[in-house]
Design goal:
The chain is of the alpha+beta class and 77 residues long. The protein is 29% helix and 32% strand. The protein has helices at residues 12-24, 50-58; strands spanning 2-8, 32-35, 40-46, 64-68, 75-76. The protein has a five-stranded antiparallel sheet, covered by helices on one side. Mean pLDDT is 86; it is low at 70-77.
Length: 77
């Protein structure tokens, strides 16, 4: 089952570094969605590796994080 992890960063530099790290770990670009105007990053991944993805994204100090799914939409932690 897939899940979507959503984070918002305070700077474009943090956003770029997070995307670079995701790609470096093997996440495909079509699994990553970036909204530059709001500095929001969404990653669609397998539920089994969600904790590792969250840890990677948290290492770049997001200001807001959550997850999305077809049942609950966007939820803030």
């Amino acid at each position: 089952m897939n899940t979507t992890v959503t984070v918002t960063y305070s700077s474009s530099d943090s956003l770029r570094k997070a995307v670079d790290d995701l790609i470096g770990t093997g996440i495909l670009q079509d699994q990553i969605s970036v909204t530059k105007s709001s500095l929001k990053l969404k990653v669609t991944t397998l539920k089994a590796i969600e904790p590792e993805i969250r840890e990677l994204l948290e290492s770049h100090n997001p200001i807001k994080q959550g997850h999305g799914c077809k049942y609950c939409g966007y939820l803030s932690n």
